[in-house]
Amino acid sequence: MAIGAANITSIFTNGLVSSLLWTSNCRSLVTPATLVRTLASSHAKIHRTNLTWCSWNSHNSNNYRSYSCESSAASEVAPSVTTTSSSNGYPEYGRLLPCPPQNSPPRVEHLVVSEGGPVLEYISKALDLPPLFVADLIHFGAVHYALVCPEPPPSATPEQIRVYKAVTAPSVLHMRRSIKGKTFREAQKTFRITWIDEFVERGMYLRVHVHPKRFPRCYEIDWKSRIIAVTESYVILDKPAATSVGGTTDNIEESCATFATRALGLTTPLMTTHQIDNCTEGCVVLARTKEYSSVFHGKIREKKVKKLYLALAAAPVPTGVITHYMRPVNIAPRLISEEFVKGWQLCQLDVLECRKVPWPNALIEKKYGIVDCGWPSKDFAYECKINLLTGRTHQVF
């Protein structure tokens, strides 16, 4: 078996995608994206990061422990932390908003609370971070909790395993009123902390994304110009590339839903009804009411919603159904094979048409950050209209 890029993937490597969407009994919501606007999605590829290893770190000698996840691909924009001390003894830093220009490696801290109290105060002391910085992280949705600590990773030391067993021992859990009536699995479910004064009790688990993923393009977009339609039930947005539709695990602030809500001056936040990849631009539907959100989800379940994508390829692509298989691991690189592999996910797409278009000139390449990846020809590109028959993440690439 030869594991490698399938034909469609090798052709679309570093290709660019935009989406079109409509529901049955409705007219098309957007016209095909132009080549230039499709090219904007290439900039999003710069912001991918893959967690490659985890290590546990002890911050003191009592029951509090944490571990940090780091990456060799440090390309996320993150808050800067300097060595200059402020009057309160904490280091000064650049605020999360607006988005700072420099990059920092991803940092995720996993804590077991050793002493109850307000969450902001506890995290500030445990991680030696300025309170205002922690408040910004909570505002971003970068802090999560669970009543009971999840099982530590394989890299944990015997001492850290001992601590985990100590705080999750049945005799200890039996004394905690907050988990009465809950199963062990239910108590390990994580939730986002949204209030800086929320109380955290001893034994509770905290996950702090100290360097959340950032989406600086949110601040460059004229969001009102991207609104296609506004009704009492929903808003249709032409999503820009390099943005998240509804936010990520560590960042719900820099999202299309948030910025579109502000652009329209709405008092009730818009709700996501479906997703398209961060690197993709195109039509998305944002619900204004819970009722319409349910209606739209019903249309998706009943297969009354159809998405079409425009992908820019460096070589011509044959029309018709293309099939390959992808390793079911949600980290990069995405390994794929043209041959069947047991346990791997089936990926199918239907190339409806492929048309030849002029290659963008040097000014457009520079404006949209298009990197020369060794394409065989730079005279022409090929714009393909695609219907995804399966919905695997990044299955086209």
UniProtKB/TrEMBL annotation:
Superkingdom of the source species: Eukaryota
Q: Where is the Pseudouridine synthase RsuA/RluA-like domain?
A: 234-396
User: Could you tell me which Gene3D superfamilies the record lists for this protein?
Assistant: Pseudouridine synthase
Q: Which InterPro entries match?
A: PsdUridine_synth_cat_dom_sf, PsdUridine_synth_RsuA/RluA, RluA_PseudoU_synthase
Write one Pfam family the protein is assigned to: PseudoU_synth_2
Name-wise, this protein is Pseudouridine synthase RsuA/RluA-like domain-containing protein
